[in-house]
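Journal club side-thread
Mid-discussion, someone asked how the predicted structure for our own chain would compare to the paper's figures. Pasting it here so we can look after the session.
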Amino acid sequence: MSGIILSHNLTAVFVTIILAVWAILQFKSVLNKKAIFNIVLAAITTIGVTASYTFAFIEANIVQTYQIPKNSEYQMEEFAKQTFEPVDFFMPYDVKKGVSLLFHLDWNTEIWRPGAIGIFLLAILFLAAKTRKRKKNKVLRVAFCISVLLYLCMFIGPIVKWAGKFISFMQFGWRLLLFCMFAFSVYAAYLLHFYFKKRWQTVFVILAILTACYTVGPRYVYQMYLDYKGMEYIKTINEEFYEHYIMEYSPNSADALYLPEGVSRDLYKERGERVDCNHKDVRYEFIREDNKCRLMVSNNSYNDTMFELPLYYYKGYAAVDKNTGSRLTVLPSENKLVTVSLNDGMHEADLEIWYHGTPVQQLGNLISGLTLLLLFLCGVFHLKVFRSRKE
Protein backbone atom coordinates (compact mmCIF):
# COMPACT_ATOMS: atom_id res chain seq x y z
CA MET A 1 0.00 0.00 0.00
CA SER A 2 2.89 2.34 0.73
CA GLY A 3 4.29 1.70 -2.74
CA ILE A 4 0.94 2.52 -4.36
CA ILE A 5 0.50 5.73 -2.31
CA LEU A 6 4.00 6.89 -3.26
CA SER A 7 3.41 6.03 -6.94
CA HIS A 8 -0.03 7.28 -7.99
CA ASN A 9 -2.72 9.02 -5.95
CA LEU A 10 -5.73 7.97 -8.02
CA THR A 11 -4.64 4.34 -8.03
CA ALA A 12 -4.26 4.54 -4.24
CA VAL A 13 -7.87 5.76 -3.99
CA PHE A 14 -9.10 2.91 -6.22
CA VAL A 15 -7.17 0.30 -4.25
CA THR A 16 -8.55 1.72 -1.00
CA ILE A 17 -12.08 1.28 -2.37
CA ILE A 18 -11.31 -2.32 -3.36
CA LEU A 19 -9.84 -3.10 0.05
CA ALA A 20 -12.75 -1.42 1.84
CA VAL A 21 -15.30 -3.52 -0.06
CA TRP A 22 -13.23 -6.66 0.52
CA ALA A 23 -12.95 -5.89 4.26
CA ILE A 24 -16.72 -5.42 4.54
CA LEU A 25 -17.38 -8.74 2.77
CA GLN A 26 -14.83 -10.56 4.94
CA PHE A 27 -15.72 -8.73 8.16
CA LYS A 28 -17.14 -11.71 10.06
CA SER A 29 -14.27 -14.05 9.22
CA VAL A 30 -11.59 -11.64 10.49
CA LEU A 31 -13.46 -10.27 13.51
CA ASN A 32 -10.94 -11.29 16.17
CA LYS A 33 -8.41 -9.44 18.28
CA LYS A 34 -5.34 -10.74 16.46
CA ALA A 35 -6.66 -9.80 13.01
CA ILE A 36 -7.77 -6.34 14.14
CA PHE A 37 -4.38 -5.76 15.81
CA ASN A 38 -2.52 -6.76 12.63
CA ILE A 39 -4.70 -4.53 10.44
CA VAL A 40 -4.23 -1.53 12.75
CA LEU A 41 -0.48 -2.19 12.92
CA ALA A 42 -0.29 -2.40 9.11
CA ALA A 43 -2.22 0.88 8.79
CA ILE A 44 0.04 2.66 11.29
CA THR A 45 3.13 1.33 9.49
CA THR A 46 1.78 2.53 6.14
CA ILE A 47 1.11 6.00 7.57
CA GLY A 48 4.63 6.05 9.01
CA VAL A 49 6.40 4.92 5.84
CA THR A 50 4.50 7.44 3.66
CA ALA A 51 4.47 10.35 6.15
CA SER A 52 7.25 12.22 4.31
CA TYR A 53 4.89 12.44 1.31
CA THR A 54 1.35 12.38 2.74
CA PHE A 55 1.92 15.03 5.42
CA ALA A 56 3.29 17.48 2.85
CA PHE A 57 0.56 16.52 0.36
CA ILE A 58 -2.25 17.22 2.84
CA GLU A 59 -0.69 20.49 3.97
CA ALA A 60 -0.19 21.68 0.38
CA ASN A 61 -3.85 21.01 -0.46
CA ILE A 62 -4.98 22.89 2.65
CA VAL A 63 -2.88 25.92 1.71
CA GLN A 64 -4.11 26.18 -1.90
CA THR A 65 -5.98 24.33 -4.63
CA TYR A 66 -4.39 22.84 -7.74
CA GLN A 67 -5.38 22.37 -11.36
CA ILE A 68 -6.77 18.87 -10.98
CA PRO A 69 -9.07 17.68 -13.81
CA LYS A 70 -12.80 18.20 -13.36
CA ASN A 71 -15.84 16.98 -15.26
CA SER A 72 -15.48 19.84 -17.75
CA GLU A 73 -16.65 19.77 -21.36
CA TYR A 74 -13.05 19.34 -22.52
CA GLN A 75 -12.46 16.40 -20.18
CA MET A 76 -15.70 14.75 -21.35
CA GLU A 77 -14.65 15.02 -25.00
CA GLU A 78 -11.22 13.56 -24.25
CA PHE A 79 -12.74 10.81 -22.13
CA ALA A 80 -14.96 9.64 -25.02
CA LYS A 81 -11.86 9.21 -27.21
CA GLN A 82 -10.62 6.49 -24.85
CA THR A 83 -13.16 3.96 -26.18
CA PHE A 84 -11.44 0.68 -27.02
CA GLU A 85 -11.37 -0.74 -30.53
CA PRO A 86 -12.01 -4.50 -31.07
CA VAL A 87 -8.33 -5.03 -31.88
CA ASP A 88 -7.41 -3.72 -28.40
CA PHE A 89 -8.88 -6.93 -27.01
CA PHE A 90 -5.90 -8.91 -28.38
CA MET A 91 -3.14 -6.39 -29.11
CA PRO A 92 -1.14 -4.01 -26.89
CA TYR A 93 -0.83 -0.49 -28.27
CA ASP A 94 2.69 -0.76 -29.70
CA VAL A 95 1.98 -4.03 -31.51
CA LYS A 96 -1.22 -2.51 -32.83
CA LYS A 97 0.67 0.56 -34.06
CA GLY A 98 3.32 -1.55 -35.77
CA VAL A 99 0.79 -3.80 -37.52
CA SER A 100 -1.25 -0.74 -38.55
CA LEU A 101 1.79 0.90 -40.17
CA LEU A 102 2.95 -2.32 -41.78
CA PHE A 103 -0.36 -3.18 -43.43
CA HIS A 104 -1.72 0.42 -43.75
CA LEU A 105 -4.76 -0.32 -41.58
CA ASP A 106 -7.21 2.34 -40.45
CA TRP A 107 -6.74 1.80 -36.72
CA ASN A 108 -6.72 4.64 -34.22
CA THR A 109 -3.14 4.84 -32.95
CA GLU A 110 -3.05 8.50 -31.96
CA ILE A 111 -4.15 7.76 -28.39
CA TRP A 112 -2.38 5.27 -26.14
CA ARG A 113 -4.62 2.63 -24.59
CA PRO A 114 -3.70 -0.59 -22.78
CA GLY A 115 -4.45 -3.68 -24.84
CA ALA A 116 -4.39 -7.49 -24.90
CA ILE A 117 -6.19 -7.82 -21.56
CA GLY A 118 -8.77 -9.88 -23.41
CA ILE A 119 -6.23 -12.73 -23.72
CA PHE A 120 -6.03 -13.03 -19.94
CA LEU A 121 -9.83 -12.83 -19.74
CA LEU A 122 -10.24 -15.68 -22.24
CA ALA A 123 -7.90 -17.83 -20.17
CA ILE A 124 -10.05 -17.23 -17.06
CA LEU A 125 -13.24 -17.93 -19.00
CA PHE A 126 -11.68 -21.25 -19.99
CA LEU A 127 -11.15 -22.04 -16.29
CA ALA A 128 -14.73 -21.02 -15.54
CA ALA A 129 -16.06 -23.23 -18.33
CA LYS A 130 -14.06 -26.22 -17.07
CA THR A 131 -15.60 -25.78 -13.61
CA ARG A 132 -19.10 -24.75 -14.72
CA LYS A 133 -20.74 -27.64 -12.83
CA ARG A 134 -18.92 -26.90 -9.59
CA LYS A 135 -20.41 -24.80 -6.82
CA LYS A 136 -18.49 -21.52 -6.51
CA ASN A 137 -18.18 -18.61 -4.11
CA LYS A 138 -21.04 -16.26 -4.96
CA VAL A 139 -19.23 -13.06 -4.03
CA LEU A 140 -16.24 -13.84 -6.24
CA ARG A 141 -18.42 -15.01 -9.12
CA VAL A 142 -20.59 -11.86 -9.01
CA ALA A 143 -17.47 -9.64 -8.77
CA PHE A 144 -15.97 -11.41 -11.78
CA CYS A 145 -19.17 -11.05 -13.86
CA ILE A 146 -19.44 -7.35 -13.02
CA SER A 147 -15.79 -6.82 -13.99
CA VAL A 148 -16.28 -8.63 -17.32
CA LEU A 149 -19.29 -6.43 -18.02
CA LEU A 150 -17.32 -3.31 -17.07
CA TYR A 151 -14.45 -4.31 -19.38
CA LEU A 152 -16.77 -4.97 -22.33
CA CYS A 153 -18.52 -1.61 -21.78
CA MET A 154 -15.20 0.11 -22.49
CA PHE A 155 -15.57 -1.02 -26.13
CA ILE A 156 -18.99 0.65 -26.54
CA GLY A 157 -18.65 4.31 -27.53
CA PRO A 158 -22.07 5.62 -26.34
CA ILE A 159 -21.58 4.05 -22.90
CA VAL A 160 -18.07 5.51 -22.53
CA LYS A 161 -19.35 8.92 -23.61
CA TRP A 162 -22.24 8.75 -21.11
CA ALA A 163 -19.91 7.64 -18.29
CA GLY A 164 -17.66 10.61 -19.07
CA LYS A 165 -20.34 12.95 -17.76
CA PHE A 166 -19.68 11.60 -14.28
CA ILE A 167 -16.10 10.26 -14.16
CA SER A 168 -14.17 12.20 -16.80
CA PHE A 169 -12.17 13.80 -13.96
CA MET A 170 -10.06 10.61 -13.95
CA GLN A 171 -8.90 11.52 -17.51
CA PHE A 172 -8.78 7.96 -18.88
CA GLY A 173 -11.61 5.47 -18.70
CA TRP A 174 -9.17 2.56 -18.88
CA ARG A 175 -8.08 3.37 -15.34
CA LEU A 176 -11.16 1.40 -14.31
CA LEU A 177 -9.26 -1.67 -15.51
CA LEU A 178 -7.70 -1.67 -12.06
CA PHE A 179 -11.00 -3.00 -10.69
CA CYS A 180 -11.30 -5.50 -13.54
CA MET A 181 -7.79 -6.87 -13.16
CA PHE A 182 -8.21 -7.25 -9.41
CA ALA A 183 -11.40 -9.28 -9.86
CA PHE A 184 -9.93 -11.28 -12.77
CA SER A 185 -6.78 -12.20 -10.81
CA VAL A 186 -8.56 -13.14 -7.58
CA TYR A 187 -11.15 -15.25 -9.42
CA ALA A 188 -8.47 -17.05 -11.45
CA ALA A 189 -6.47 -17.76 -8.29
CA TYR A 190 -9.64 -19.02 -6.56
CA LEU A 191 -10.53 -21.41 -9.39
CA LEU A 192 -6.98 -22.73 -9.72
CA HIS A 193 -6.57 -23.25 -5.98
CA PHE A 194 -9.80 -25.16 -5.36
CA TYR A 195 -10.53 -26.97 -8.62
CA PHE A 196 -7.25 -27.64 -10.45
CA LYS A 197 -4.17 -29.72 -9.76
CA LYS A 198 -0.62 -28.44 -9.44
CA ARG A 199 0.20 -29.04 -13.10
CA TRP A 200 -2.73 -26.86 -14.26
CA GLN A 201 -1.74 -24.15 -11.78
CA THR A 202 1.82 -24.06 -13.09
CA VAL A 203 0.72 -23.94 -16.74
CA PHE A 204 -1.74 -21.09 -16.06
CA VAL A 205 0.80 -19.01 -14.11
CA ILE A 206 3.32 -19.41 -16.96
CA LEU A 207 0.68 -18.33 -19.49
CA ALA A 208 -0.24 -15.35 -17.28
CA ILE A 209 3.41 -14.27 -17.10
CA LEU A 210 3.83 -14.61 -20.87
CA THR A 211 0.64 -12.60 -21.41
CA ALA A 212 1.93 -9.88 -19.08
CA CYS A 213 5.24 -9.76 -20.99
CA TYR A 214 3.34 -9.54 -24.28
CA THR A 215 1.14 -6.74 -22.88
CA VAL A 216 3.88 -4.61 -21.32
CA GLY A 217 7.07 -5.64 -23.15
CA PRO A 218 6.36 -4.10 -26.58
CA ARG A 219 6.01 -0.69 -24.91
CA TYR A 220 9.69 -0.73 -23.96
CA VAL A 221 10.99 -2.63 -26.99
CA TYR A 222 9.34 -0.11 -29.34
CA GLN A 223 10.83 2.87 -27.49
CA MET A 224 14.29 1.25 -27.59
CA TYR A 225 13.86 0.68 -31.33
CA LEU A 226 12.91 4.33 -31.91
CA ASP A 227 15.88 5.50 -29.85
CA TYR A 228 18.14 3.32 -31.98
CA LYS A 229 16.68 4.55 -35.32
CA GLY A 230 16.77 8.21 -34.29
CA MET A 231 14.62 11.29 -34.80
CA GLU A 232 14.86 11.31 -38.59
CA TYR A 233 13.24 7.88 -38.74
CA ILE A 234 10.44 9.00 -36.38
CA LYS A 235 9.84 12.06 -38.55
CA THR A 236 9.63 9.85 -41.63
CA ILE A 237 7.00 7.49 -40.22
CA ASN A 238 4.99 10.13 -38.35
CA GLU A 239 5.78 13.70 -39.35
CA GLU A 240 2.86 15.25 -37.46
CA PHE A 241 3.63 13.53 -34.17
CA TYR A 242 7.43 13.30 -34.07
CA GLU A 243 7.87 16.52 -32.07
CA HIS A 244 6.33 14.72 -29.08
CA TYR A 245 9.50 12.64 -28.91
CA ILE A 246 11.73 15.69 -28.45
CA MET A 247 12.39 15.83 -24.72
CA GLU A 248 14.09 18.93 -23.41
CA TYR A 249 13.82 20.79 -20.11
CA SER A 250 11.18 23.46 -19.79
CA PRO A 251 9.27 24.66 -16.72
CA ASN A 252 6.12 24.44 -18.83
CA SER A 253 6.66 20.81 -19.81
CA ALA A 254 5.76 19.70 -16.30
CA ASP A 255 2.24 18.44 -15.77
CA ALA A 256 -0.09 21.40 -15.20
CA LEU A 257 -1.85 19.36 -12.50
CA TYR A 258 0.88 20.51 -10.14
CA LEU A 259 0.36 24.21 -10.79
CA PRO A 260 -1.78 26.29 -8.42
CA GLU A 261 -5.33 26.86 -9.58
CA GLY A 262 -5.71 30.10 -11.53
CA VAL A 263 -2.17 30.08 -12.95
CA SER A 264 -1.87 30.16 -16.73
CA ARG A 265 -0.05 27.11 -18.11
CA ASP A 266 2.09 29.40 -20.24
CA LEU A 267 2.80 31.95 -17.50
CA TYR A 268 6.44 30.99 -17.10
CA LYS A 269 7.02 30.81 -20.86
CA GLU A 270 5.52 34.28 -21.36
CA ARG A 271 7.09 35.82 -18.28
CA GLY A 272 10.53 34.20 -18.24
CA GLU A 273 13.00 35.14 -15.50
CA ARG A 274 11.44 38.55 -14.95
CA VAL A 275 11.28 40.02 -11.44
CA ASP A 276 8.62 42.68 -10.77
CA CYS A 277 9.02 45.35 -8.09
CA ASN A 278 6.25 47.69 -6.91
CA HIS A 279 8.70 50.66 -7.12
CA LYS A 280 10.36 51.30 -10.48
CA ASP A 281 13.34 53.27 -9.17
CA VAL A 282 14.58 50.44 -6.91
CA ARG A 283 17.58 48.69 -8.44
CA TYR A 284 18.00 44.92 -8.26
CA GLU A 285 19.68 41.95 -9.91
CA PHE A 286 18.29 38.41 -9.96
CA ILE A 287 20.28 35.22 -10.57
CA ARG A 288 19.92 31.49 -9.84
CA GLU A 289 22.78 29.53 -8.31
CA ASP A 290 23.13 26.22 -6.46
CA ASN A 291 19.37 25.52 -6.35
CA LYS A 292 18.79 28.89 -4.76
CA CYS A 293 17.78 32.33 -6.03
CA ARG A 294 19.75 35.44 -5.26
CA LEU A 295 18.26 38.95 -5.33
CA MET A 296 20.65 41.88 -4.82
CA VAL A 297 18.80 45.11 -4.02
CA SER A 298 20.06 48.68 -3.85
CA ASN A 299 18.69 52.24 -3.84
CA ASN A 300 15.61 51.30 -1.83
CA SER A 301 14.08 54.29 -0.05
CA TYR A 302 10.67 52.74 0.69
CA ASN A 303 9.23 50.79 3.60
CA ASP A 304 6.80 48.66 1.55
CA THR A 305 9.03 47.31 -1.22
CA MET A 306 7.91 43.95 -2.61
CA PHE A 307 9.36 41.71 -5.31
CA GLU A 308 7.42 39.15 -7.32
CA LEU A 309 9.80 36.36 -8.33
CA PRO A 310 9.57 33.83 -11.19
CA LEU A 311 8.76 31.01 -8.74
CA TYR A 312 5.40 29.25 -8.42
CA TYR A 313 4.19 29.59 -4.86
CA TYR A 314 4.23 26.60 -2.55
CA LYS A 315 4.26 27.00 1.19
CA GLY A 316 7.77 26.44 2.49
CA TYR A 317 9.86 29.07 0.69
CA ALA A 318 12.38 30.97 2.82
CA ALA A 319 14.17 34.28 2.22
CA VAL A 320 17.20 35.51 4.18
CA ASP A 321 19.30 38.67 3.93
CA LYS A 322 22.89 37.40 3.75
CA ASN A 323 24.21 40.71 5.10
CA THR A 324 22.23 40.71 8.35
CA GLY A 325 20.94 37.11 8.62
CA SER A 326 17.37 38.36 9.08
CA ARG A 327 14.44 36.43 7.59
CA LEU A 328 11.96 38.13 5.29
CA THR A 329 8.27 37.54 4.71
CA VAL A 330 7.37 35.24 1.78
CA LEU A 331 3.78 35.24 0.48
CA PRO A 332 1.88 34.36 -2.73
CA SER A 333 1.11 37.10 -5.26
CA GLU A 334 -2.07 37.53 -7.31
CA ASN A 335 -0.36 35.48 -10.05
CA LYS A 336 0.27 32.68 -7.48
CA LEU A 337 4.01 33.39 -7.60
CA VAL A 338 6.43 33.97 -4.73
CA THR A 339 6.69 37.52 -3.35
CA VAL A 340 9.32 38.78 -0.91
CA SER A 341 8.79 41.89 1.22
CA LEU A 342 11.77 43.91 2.47
CA ASN A 343 11.87 44.85 6.12
CA ASP A 344 11.65 48.50 7.15
CA GLY A 345 14.85 50.47 6.65
CA MET A 346 16.49 48.00 4.26
CA HIS A 347 18.14 50.35 1.72
CA GLU A 348 20.35 47.54 0.45
CA ALA A 349 19.98 43.78 0.67
CA ASP A 350 21.55 40.60 -0.61
CA LEU A 351 18.67 38.13 -0.47
CA GLU A 352 18.85 34.37 -0.76
CA ILE A 353 15.56 32.62 -1.58
CA TRP A 354 15.11 28.84 -1.66
CA TYR A 355 12.61 26.12 -0.89
CA HIS A 356 13.25 25.28 2.75
CA GLY A 357 10.21 23.12 3.44
CA THR A 358 7.66 23.41 6.24
CA PRO A 359 7.68 22.10 9.82
CA VAL A 360 4.96 19.62 8.78
CA GLN A 361 7.20 18.29 5.99
CA GLN A 362 10.13 17.95 8.37
CA LEU A 363 7.92 16.12 10.86
CA GLY A 364 6.82 13.76 8.09
CA ASN A 365 10.45 13.11 7.12
CA LEU A 366 11.31 12.34 10.74
CA ILE A 367 8.38 9.93 11.14
CA SER A 368 9.21 8.10 7.90
CA GLY A 369 12.87 7.83 8.86
CA LEU A 370 12.04 6.42 12.29
CA THR A 371 9.48 3.99 10.80
CA LEU A 372 11.99 2.63 8.28
CA LEU A 373 14.57 2.27 11.05
CA LEU A 374 12.09 0.36 13.24
CA LEU A 375 11.16 -1.92 10.32
CA PHE A 376 14.84 -2.65 9.74
CA LEU A 377 15.43 -3.41 13.44
CA CYS A 378 12.32 -5.64 13.54
CA GLY A 379 13.61 -7.52 10.50
CA VAL A 380 17.00 -8.06 12.14
CA PHE A 381 15.33 -9.21 15.38
CA HIS A 382 13.03 -11.70 13.64
CA LEU A 383 15.95 -13.01 11.58
CA LYS A 384 17.95 -13.70 14.78
CA VAL A 385 14.94 -15.40 16.38
CA PHE A 386 14.45 -17.57 13.28
CA ARG A 387 18.13 -18.60 13.23
CA SER A 388 18.15 -19.40 16.96
CA ARG A 389 15.07 -21.62 16.58
CA LYS A 390 16.62 -23.35 13.59
CA GLU A 391 19.76 -24.12 15.56
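Post-session note: The beta strands are 276-277, 283-289, 292-298, 306-312, 317-321, 329-332, 337-341, 349-355.
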